[in-house]
Amino acid sequence: MMDRIPILRMGQFLLVTIQVDMHDRLALALQDDLTTKISETGATGVLIDISSLEIVDSFIGRMVANISAMSKILDAQTVIVGMQPAVAITLVELGLSLPGVRTALDVERGMALLQNPRVNMTSYAQAGDEENFDDSDNQN
Amino acid sequence: MPRLATKKILTTVIIKTETLPVMAEHDVVKARQMVRQWASEIGLSLVDQTKIITAASELARNMVIYGGGGTMEIQSLEQYGRRGVKLVFEDKGPGIADITQALKDGFTTGSGMGLGLGGAKRLSNEFEIESTPGQGTRIMIARWK
Ligand SMILES: Nc1ncnc2c1ncn2[C@@H]1O[C@H](COP(=O)(O)OP(=O)(O)O)[C@@H](O)[C@H]1O
Ligand SMILES: [Mg+2]
What we know:
The structure holds two protein chains of two kinds. Chain A is an alpha/beta fold. Chain A is 41% helix and 16% strand. Chain A has a five-stranded mixed β-sheet with strand order 1-2-3-4-5, sandwiched between helices. In chain A, helix 1 packs parallel to helix 2 (58-73). Chain A is globular, with a radius of gyration of 14 Å. In chain A, 38% of the residues are buried. Chain B has a single domain, classed as Histidine kinase-like ATPase, C-terminal domain (Heat Shock Protein 90), CATH 3.30.565.10. In chain B, strand 2 and strand 3 (82-91) form a beta hairpin. The longest helix of chain B is centred in the middle third of the chain and has 20 residues, at 46-65. Adenosine-5'-diphosphate binds next to helix 2 and helix 4 of chain B.
């Protein structure tokens, strides 16, 4: 009964498009699968497209933060793309600032972020910095 | 001395109401979808819909994780000519001993982020919580147009 979210490989990058309203175990499975895939493939970047996600609550938010932190340990960058404005507004009010999570407006800009390692070196998001949604996209 | 009393007539019309059992993880997804549908039906803006769905997701998950499962009652209402959605989450779990502490951001007795209760309160126009240790927890939230 346990379905999984597909992970596509594109060169050095892994691409994930979340298209369903995820139940918690599906989110946890994605976290595990991505960890395995990164170490198997030696991918240097992970792009997660959440443009179809209608909400991000504290559970899904934590998954996103975990994936981002975990990929860093495995020497890969994670970029979250396509967060709907209503979702971003709600996340801030929920109290989730996603420190250290890189975001971009769309897949194209997310790919550009992953392809430019120097941009990736910029540590712009400090813990507790609530503005990291706003300046996620002014890097290029 | 005679006083002119302006009688405030509180007219709340329940447009419709339904109760959803929330026992397991997949019911949390169902709860979100149901709130989405009802909130959009009464014409809440996309941002307000997203807020109440997110709050509902947090409270429904809490019932599954901490409350041993429960129910979500959903109502669409009309009050003073404005419409809203009201949600009541009720379980017969262990209850919450210290509500003030549970509402604090970052407080968790599990492995969560401790943002569910405080977040749900911030994301709603109305928030009421009652909990008796050993008897259960009841939380009401509402979002008005
Ligand atoms: N329905 C419930 N029944 C019993 N305890 C609850 C319930 N909901 C919340 N709690 C308690 O309140 C704490 C804070 O909840 P919350 O803010 O959602 O954070 P989290 O879910 O991350 O722990 C929980 O860790 C739990 O101890
Ligand atoms: Mg919670």
